[in-house]
Sequence to fold (598 residues):
Amino acid sequence: MRAGVIGIGAMGMGVAKRLLARGCAVSVRDVRREAEEEARAAGAAVCAAPAEVAAACPVVVTLVVDARQTEEVVFGPRGVVEGMAPGGVLVMCSTVSPEFSGPLAARLGRHGILALDAPVSGGPARALDGTMSMMIAGAPAAYDAARAVLEAISGRRFHVGTRTGDGSRMKLVNNLMAGINLAAACEGLVFGLKLGLDPRTILEVVSASSGASWAAGDRLPRVLAGDYSPRAAVDILAKDLGLALETGAAARAALPIGAAARQSFIATAALGHGQEDDAAVAKYYARVAGVALPAPERR
Amino acid sequence: MRAGVIGIGAMGMGVAKRLLARGCAVSVRDVRREAEEEARAAGAAVCAAPAEVAAACPVVVTLVVDARQTEEVVFGPRGVVEGMAPGGVLVMCSTVSPEFSGPLAARLGRHGILALDAPVSGGPARALDGTMSMMIAGAPAAYDAARAVLEAISGRRFHVGTRTGDGSRMKLVNNLMAGINLAAACEGLVFGLKLGLDPRTILEVVSASSGASWAAGDRLPRVLAGDYSPRAAVDILAKDLGLALETGAAARAALPIGAAARQSFIATAALGHGQEDDAAVAKYYARVAGVALPAPERR
Fold:
């Protein structure tokens, strides 16, 4: 098995190391030299450009930040399309607009390259241990050609459609709900604090009641611990919600609660917390309500 | 064991029957004759007024609709305070404003009666089988005096505070999150439908991803089945969210996402769905977006 990973940030590095651990020959490329050195030390071959990665590998995973970067590493100078042999597969894992990922199959098809629109979920730890989930859209032939790599890097794969774009659409639907649920959890927590309730009791009751959500269960313990080291940053979620809202606007789907939730994350960033964990939206609510959040635990 | 139940609607009837099933002597009172007849057939003693229920029972559970009705059955003509012997306990289970439930302990204390502010969660089926959960606030002496009854009628009890009012506060915090999460789930589902995604795939992916919530997992299957028979009605959730918003306004806790969510339920009721299951908020989103929801399954 031979695979390339372009964009070895937190997620991409996890994927590259996971592939190496499964005995795969891995080629990588990143704009940051230190990330490339870390991958090289783990056993990856470092290439000078995306085209070189693509020339060496029949399956290339891109995990760069956004559509602009994906466009550059795939279609830009010395990009994937310049190096990849016909029949190769591009597995595009970034969260992007369906307006970008939709035409990807046709654009790559002109070069004889197959395409999967395959956003991921689960965070760096699950990328590293191969248990992240993927929402995969694309032609069956593309899926079959990438199957071994997909199965190596993910614990759960949802086939959400045969047209590229549907992976992005599903990711935006999920992230819309996740973002709202997270803001709701923090809005509710601070509401309870303002009413004089104990934060640990709030978490205990809500977790066992109809107000429960994955977002509340995952993020409120961070708020209670005063731990805002970023697993997923406020700025990223504000960006994802913005992408959902723009996609909704283009499709004529009104998302009033999503719009309200996004404002909470924008306000949180405005208070200087954009690079903190997205649980920091609780800080915005607490600031507005004039209540104190639990202080960080002593280490 | 001897206990009274005042207000035998869906929840109260479940509680009364559960107590009877556990061998408890039960006295009931309701304004609807047919509910009283159903309870009598199940083995309960039917009383002519709340005062009679209270005279017969050291523990009385009220499960009427709101604070106005609670005020009437407890403090009104032939109310609980006129019949209950000193040392008796009123277990107030309705979802009410903390402005009403807060002073309850002091008001009843003047009559020598103990008070618990104990909103319930879980719906009629769990009331009937004794597994509903309770958020209980009140003095330890009140809790001890009612303990056997509380343990008979609930599967899980959260002691949220020693002052009446805290039960209501916790319930409003939970219902705020539940209401937002439900509206978010329906907003996201319809967003996905508008983008051309398959509804069953959306539910499957979201349930296993960061967008998961209790509300999505419980209500979206109803939307997919086209089943809007009311387990919890739109009007009730709109009322509960209104109570949360008023309580937040009085305490100076801004709840912008809760406010947006409430508008969705109000709009749903305005479209004529107020008495349907609260999952019908999906109908409002679908109407606005111009997409069709799954039709009811043939029976």
User: Anything to note?
Assistant: Chain B touches chain A through 69 residues (CB under 8 Å). DSSP finds 15 helices and nine strands in chain B.
